[in-house]
Design goal:
Blueprint (H helix, E strand, L loop, with lengths): L2 E7 L1 H4 L6 H12 L3 E8 L3 H14 L2 E5 L10 H9 L3 E3 L1 H13 L13 E3 L3 E3 L8 E6 L2 E6 L3 H20 L4 E9 L4 H8 L9 E7 L2 E10 L2 H19 L3 E4 L4 H21 L3 H7 L1 H4 L5
Parallel strand pairs: 1-2, 1-3, 3-8
Antiparallel strand pairs: 4-5, 6-7, 7-8, 9-11, 9-12, 10-11
Helix pairs in contact: 2-6, 3-4
Length: 299
């Protein structure tokens, strides 16, 4: 199974002017396709520093994904940085320039000479058309490793991830596995207490078990790598059962369930039971009327 690193490029990220939502999105996509993500890095708009970081990442990872730095301005460094990292020149691609011009024409606009910078990519690179923006992306390959350079605009990055990056990785690395996670929410126990009760499970390798302390609660994440979602569910279910036996009622929900929802469901269930007992209503009738609520179980 290949491993990956993500490099988010942009001085605005380092200054805290915008949030790096791209890395979060990419991490989920890689997880869903069974690619191990071991490191993410944020770096400013400096071509030489980016080039150095790319080479460092390639020394560790099979797949390096960059976001940002593909715009038309002088301070967009990704094209130059990858040329430096791979020891090649930047080459003009007439086909890319035509794509950029056509994109502008669809919006009744005229590209400037600055936009022409986006038609240059490092020699030997594989150009990838961007049908939802003006910044073409590209791929650089080094042996069995690769660098996939994506634009930083989230809408463009997400589209190209789905339609270009993941299809490329699936074919190149014959990805067949997936990584699935389930989160158990606990309340009333501190992180050290939870760790004391399930610490031995945190040493498992597949599935893995990890803790995340939040305000007022501790989450227990179970993550499995498998060839199918069904197989991953079986692996997770087994570990979840053990955790539930140890943590008991401290677990109030899983994944997207909230403590407010859990309390609400308990109150509704208690009221329904009271209706059945006090009013003598038929249980089947009550269940039919409140079926949607009763279908949710507070575990």
């Amino acid at each position: 199974m290949p491993n990956a690193e993500i490099i988010a490029i942009g001085t605005e990220l380092l200054l805290g002017e915008i949030q790096d939502t791209n890395t979060h999105y990419l991490a989920r996509q890689l997880r869903d396709h069974g690619v191990n993500l071991y490191r993410t890095t944020m770096i400013g708009d400096n071509a030489h520093r980016v080039a150095e970081l790319v080479n460092e990442a390639l020394s560790r990872a099979d797949i390096v994904i960059t976001t940002g730095g593909l715009g038309p301005t002088v301070d967009d460094p990704t094209r130059e940085a990858l040329a430096i990292a791979f020891g090649v020149e930047i080459e003009y691609q007439p086909a890319l320039w035509e794509q950029i011009q056509n994109r502008f024409m669809r919006f009744s606009r005229t590209p400037t000479e600055n936009n022409k910078r986006q038609a240059y990519i490092p020699a030997g690179g594989i150009a990838v058309e961007n049908p939802v923006g003006t910044a073409p992306c590209f791929i650089m390959e080094r042996g069995d490793k690769c660098v996939f350079c994506l634009p930083g605009v989230p809408k463009e990055m997400e589209y190209l991830t789905s339609h270009a990056l993941m299809p490329y990785l699936l074919e190149r690395y014959q990805l067949t596995d997936l990584i699935k996670a389930r989160v158990l929410h606990t309340i009333g126990l501190g992180e050290s207490s939870v760790d004391d009760m399930i610490g031995d499970l945190e040493l498992l390798t597949n599935p893995t078990v990890g803790l995340l302390a939040k305000s007022g609660q501790v989450d227990v994440r179970i993550t499995a790598k498998a060839s199918s979602e069904a197989q991953a569910d079986v692996m997770i279910d087994e570990v979840e059962q053990t955790i539930r036996q140890r943590l008991g009622s401290a677990i109030y929900g899983i994944d997207e369930e909230t403590i407010a929802e859990a309390v609400s469901l308990l109150l509704v269930r208690d009221h329904i039971q009271a209706l059945v007992a006090v009013e003598g209503l038929d249980t089947g009738f009550v269940e039919e009327q409140f079926g949607k609520i009763l279908s949710k179980q507070v575990k």
